[in-house]
Each structure stands twice: as C-alpha cells, then as structure tokens.
Design brief:
With 450 residues, this protein is an alpha/beta fold. The protein has 12 helices and 25 strands. Helix content is 30%, strand content 27%. The longest helix is centred in the N-terminal third of the chain and has 15 residues. The protein starts with a helix and ends in a 5-residue tail after the last helix. The relative contact order is 0.08.
Length: 450
C-alpha cells in the first residue's frame, strides 16, 4: 500500500501516543499525539463528510485548532489548501477559489467560495500558494510522497529528530512552516511550541519556559531579538537557530552569535522545490548570499549565466513541464547563483533584474549587495527611477542619511552604478511570510505610501 501523510502520522502516534505534540505558550496548555489525533477524528466525523479527493481550503492561525482541521482533512481524504489567517476575509475567499477550492473552513465554519469542482485525479494531497512574484499567488499541487520527501530531507540535513522541540512562530501553512514544523511532527513526532506573538520578549519567555531546541525563524525576528533587551540565558535552550524566507544580513548573523553564543544557520528553498540547501556549520550566514550546501537528496544542475535547476523527490511534478525521471521533479528557481569550490551555493540575485544605465548593462542585485554590506544598513531595494529609466533609485532600511550612503557607495562602485536618489526607511514592510514586500516599495517609488 502506498504510504501517505496520514499513514505516517498514524505510525508516529502509535510509536509514542503519550508524547507531547503541541504546547500553547500563551495559555500554558499542551496535548499529546493521541489527544491531537482524537481531535482530528472528531473534526472529520463532524465536518468531513463528502470531502474525499476534493480541494478544500483551511484558514486557521497557528495553534491546536489548525492541527485539528489539518488532521481532520487528512482523515477525510481531502486535498488541503492552507490559507494565511492574516488575510482579510475577501482575500481568503479569492485565494481559495483561485486554488480550486469550492469550500473554505475558518474559525467561523464553512464558507462556499466557488461552485463544486470536479475532483482532481492526479494524486495531489496539498496545494501550496506561492508568495506571488506576479502580484497574485500561484497554486502548486503536491503529492503525499513529495511532501514526505521534503520533510525527511530537511530533518536529515538539519539533524532534527523526534526528541527535538520546535518553536513555532512562522505560519504552519506556508512552505517554510510546512517543511520545518508540520512535517517533522507528522513524520517523526517532533513537538511544537506555538507562540502567537513575534515580539522578542514573548519569544524569550517561551524559550525560557518551554525549552524548545530548534527555532525556524525569519531575519526580521532575529534582528528584533538582537536589538531587544533579551538576556543570553533566556535563549540558552536553543541548540539550532535557522533563518529562511529572505536574505539574512551578515551584520545580524554576527550580532546574534556575539549576543547569544548561537550561530544562525542559513536555509534556502522555494515553494516549488521545498528545501534546497542548508548551512550545517552556521558559518555561511556571515557571508552575504551564502546559503550552504544542497540538502541530502537534492541535486543541482548548473546552467549558463548563473542559472541552475533543482531536482529531488520533493519537487512538484503535477503541471510541471520540467519533470525529470519517474518520481523526481525538476525546477529552475528565479535566482542566480554560483557554486563555491567547497560546494556551497552563493546567491547572486534574481534573474531578470538586468537594466541599462547610460548604455551599460547593470545587475540591480550588485548595487543592493553593496548597500547591504554597508555597516548600519538592514536591507536595500534598488530599481530604475520611474521618471528617468536611465537612473537608479534606492530604498534603504537604515538610520544613515542619503549622503552617507552615497559617499560609501562612491568609494566602492563606479559612479554610473550609484543611485541618483535615496529613500530612507526605518524598516522595510514585510509580507505575512516574513519577506520584503516589494509591491509596497514599488508603490512608494510611484508616489504612493508604504
């Protein structure tokens, strides 16, 4: 019989029914694997009739209810489409319908969002919604086997076991949360401490009290911890701190290590591929763009101009024209990179960001890297000036002034590469996934508001 996520979960429950699965950091409650499984059974009995093989969207915040619905949908044999609970109701329904769901479950119960669609017969189990580089998320269908392969590759590459306890702040339903929080619990019983607040003091209290050993984080949270009045011993239980979702400035990685005696381990992946690479030594984060070595089971094929293709059993094959051999998908990310002599991957920026300035070609990522390497700069976004396409404008998250930034760049870049205009922000706006919200930055350039 073909193994599925539900079969894997049942094995995990049988192996340790009384082991803690979830802890609610705010309320102080916890539940075992058996209790979580029984709650999933109840949800499936009460709400799961007629859902078999149908795409169904779920929209719950992190916590026990998220798991009750997720396990209930697995037991109902539905195709699961997690929707970000931070989206407004209208956007939730739009996203659910665009992903092929007829119904959406939220804390208020069922909502019908589209006519009942035909059941897909291609083996899909979960549909991820990308962050949407085109401005609207794309629906990416994955099979049980692909999801399980991603979880196993991540756990093996990062050394995460069933004895670990994850700190769950990143959303469960996002690709990062699915690979690092949901699948380790389903596949091997790695428990999760659910902390709803991303504030540094709340995180510190959760770590100090519940003693999680693994913390999948995003750069914005790590920076906040560095800047807050958090004591070293409060984060002492953490043996592994992971950063993904957006580039981590080496300044933050170094400050985190100095402040808390813990290295930050860079992790790189995409919605289409799951995890791609990881830095087991925790040294890559001190070098901008270094995202470590390919995870076990992940193969990279290098192409001209820094492009590369990722293949593994975790890469989507449904609707993917770049399918490889049986059971192995292939995908070419939008990033450019080069491979270092020791096999590490050094990201060089997104493909398609070449512009012409004064008749000469320029990769905008080159200027952004130069800005990020400036002491005191948190992040940078560079684009052509809307009113003068042959000139550049930079939006920079920093306390420095525009003339200080210009002076620093003039010492390191050719004059034609230096932006003509600098807009300074205290912080960049972020999406719910912890990534820089480039759409809002472009609005600012166009004369809108951030």
């Amino acid at each position: 019989m073909t193994s599925t996520l539900l079969h894997a979960w049942r094995r995990t429950v049988r192996a340790g029914p009384d082991e803690i699965a979830l802890i609610d950091a705010a309320a102080g409650g916890s539940c075992t694997r058996r209790e979580l499984d029984l709650a999933g059974d109840r949800w499936a009995r009460e709400h799961g009739a007629g859902l078999a093989a149908h795409p169904v969207a779920m929209c719950e915040p992190n916590g026990a209810d998220w798991w009750h619905v997720f396990l209930g949908l697995l037991k109902a044999d539905a195709v699961i489409i997690p929707i970000d609970a931070g989206e407004p109701p209208g956007a939730q329904e739009t996203l659910a319908a665009a992903a092929g769901a007829a119904q959406l479950w939220s804390a208020n119960g069922w909502r019908r969002v589209a006519p009942r669609a035909k059941r897909p017969r291609d083996g899909r189990r979960l549909v991820k919604l990308t962050s949407g580089s085109s401005g609207f998320p794309r629906a990416l269908p994955f099979t049980d086997a692909q999801m399980m392969a991603d979880g196993r590759q991540i756990c093996r590459g990062m050394g995460i076991t069933g004895r670990d306890l994850n700190l769950g702040i990143i959303p469960f339903g996002h690709s990062y949360g699915m690979g690092n929080l949901v699948l380790p619990l389903v596949l091997q019983g790695t428990g999760v401490v659910c902390e709803a607040s991303p504030l540094p003091q709340a995180i510190a209290r959760a770590v100090e009290r519940w003693r999680p050993s693994v913390f999948p984080a995003v750069p914005a949270i790590l920076r906040a911890l560095v800047e807050a009045e958090v004591a070293l011993d409060q984060l002492a239980p953490l043996r592994l701190v992971i950063s993904a979702g957006s580039p981590l400035a080496r300044e933050v990685a170094q400050a985190f290590h100095e402040r808390f005696a813990r290295r930050v381990h860079n992790f790189y992946g995409s919605s289409e591929t799951g995890g791609i690479s990881y830095d087991p030594a925790g040294e890559a984060a001190t070098s901008d763009g270094n995202v470590g070595l390919p995870l076990p089971g992940v193969c990279l094929s290098w192409e001209p101009a820094g492009r590369f293709s990722v293949s593994s059993r975790a890469v989507l094959t449904l609707g993917n024209r770049r399918r490889g051999r049986a059971g192995v998908g292939a995908h070419r990310p939008a990033d450019r990179a080069r491979r270092k002599p020791n096999g590490e991957i050094l990201l060089l920026g997104r493909a398609g960001r070449m512009v012409k300035i004064a008749g000469r070609r320029l990769d905008l990522s080159e200027v952004e890297r130069a800005l990020r390497n400036t002491f005191g700069v948190k992040d940078a976004f560079v684009a052509p000036e809307p009113s003068r396409p042959d000139a550049l404008v930079a939006i920079v998250a920093t306390s420095l002034s525009g003339w200080q930034l210009r002076r620093d760049l003039q010492a390191r870049l050719a004059s034609w590469k230096v932006p003509k205009r600098f807009l300074v922000l205290a912080e960049f706006p972020l999406t719910a996934r912890g990534k820089t919200d480039t759409g809002r930055l472009r609005q600012l350039l166009a004369g809108g508001t951030v």
